[in-house]
CBS domain-containing protein YkuL
Amino acid sequence: MNIASFLLPKAEVAYLRDDMTLRQGLEKLRRSGFSAIPVIDREDRYVGVISVADFLWNILAYNQNLEDITLKNLEHMTVRDFLQNGKVKPACIDTAMENLLERAKNQNFVPVIDDRSVFIGIVTRSDIIKYFVDQNRE
């Protein structure tokens, strides 16, 4: 079975644009309530996943003196500057569920793209686990 029937579409997923400012990215990530969310570019192509830790560690790296950390000092930075590209690989829409299990061990969701690398949604780890539990029962 492919993952299309488990897809949570982009319209229902919190995500950031890579050209958002640091402040915009942090605010949207905080409002989402998640610890990590997908990042896309202006053409809706998948760029990567950014986490609270990515923001934190990079802010600290750019500011050796902790007293100098302010959003004003960092307002020239964008989400793209904090992103660790390639860390979370996306799956294509025609990927089999069996191929997602390994990825789900290390992340809460798997980003899904079409054949043009356009981000179309995610498959959650809980849906992947539920699929395999149901398969095992049968």
Remarks:
- Residues 21 and 78 are 4 Å apart (CA to CA).
- The chain has a mean pLDDT of 87.
- Residues 125-137 form the longest helix (13 residues).
